[in-house]
Design brief:
The chain has about 240 residues and is α/β, with parallel strands linked by helices. It is built from 11 helices and 5 strands; from the N terminus they run E-E-E-H-H-H-E-H-H-E-H-H-H-H-H-H.
Length: about 240
């Protein structure tokens, strides 16, 4: 299965107000392993940033004035993501902006969901951690992913962090290094090592919080009262 972890940065919060995409970052996974392939582009939005947006990204129109327009990178971007499952945190935001950009190029470009399926990692996080903060920063802290280098929002950096978070959210199998029929084991290991080298700090270690441990013990106590014992007690004796 081919997946693309995707993030965008924009000039503001609403594409309906004419805001534009200024940065796209993508990380490719194949069978839940990083391949080492990424896509990263800065884009000239042809308009200024809304108040606050420049502070979040560290970008401004002057910095992007020599970058290509979205029309200039659209075909390369679509070729990179075509046919993949996109994993996006708060997917409706990014998909809305990308669909808006495609619509400006003409109806023959269609919409993102015409080309890709979409998985919203924010919805996954809310299912796993209901009632808790599930921003990317909050999830990095909760799951032990080092985000100390994230002083500003950046599309490629955020896609790399989301890749780590997503693999933890979906069973944490991000470091399996076995080959597939189409990818020899040595290539798979090399790709994983390349991704690890670009990560920030040590590989994350997931540890249960005090709150999670307390919830676990409360669940066990209910089982003990109802059934007289819990299999967990025998397994950990």
């Amino acid at each position: 299965m081919r997946q693309i972890i995707l993030d965008t940065e924009t000039t503001g919060l609403e594409w309906k107000k004419g805001n534009r995409v200024v940065e796209i970052g993508c990380v490719e996974l194949l069978e839940r392993r990083p391949t080492g392939r990424t896509f990263h582009k800065y884009i000239n939005p042809e308009r200024d940033f809304e108040p606050g947006a420049a502070e979040v990204t560290g970008l401004n129109l002057a910095m992007l004035s020599d970058k290509p327009l979205f029309a200039g990178i659209a075909d390369e971007f679509l070729a990179f993501v075509d046919g993949a499952e996109l994993v996006i945190h708060n997917a409706e935001f990014d998909i809305g902006f990308l669909d808006y950009e495609l619509s400006r190029l003409g109806p023959h470009y269609g919409r993102m969901r015409d080309r890709c399926t979409v998985e919203d990692s924010l919805l996954l996080a809310r299912q796993r951690f209901p009632g808790q903060r599930n921003s990317l920063d909050a999830l990095c802290k909760r799951l032990g992913v080092d985000n100390s280098g994230r002083t500003k929002h950046g599309a490629l950096l955020d896609a790399e962090l989301l890749c780590e978070v997503y693999l933890h959210l979906t069973a944490g199998q991000g470091e399996i290094g076995f080959g597939t029929p189409d990818e020899p084991a040595a290539q798979a290991v090399a790709a994983t090592q390349e991704f690890a080298a670009s990560s920030h700090g040590e590989r994350p270690r997931v540890q249960a919080s005090e709150e999670e441990l307390a919830a676990h013990e409360a669940r066990l106590e209910k089982l003990r009262k109802k059934a007289g014992s819990a299999l967990w007690d025998a397994a950990t004796a």
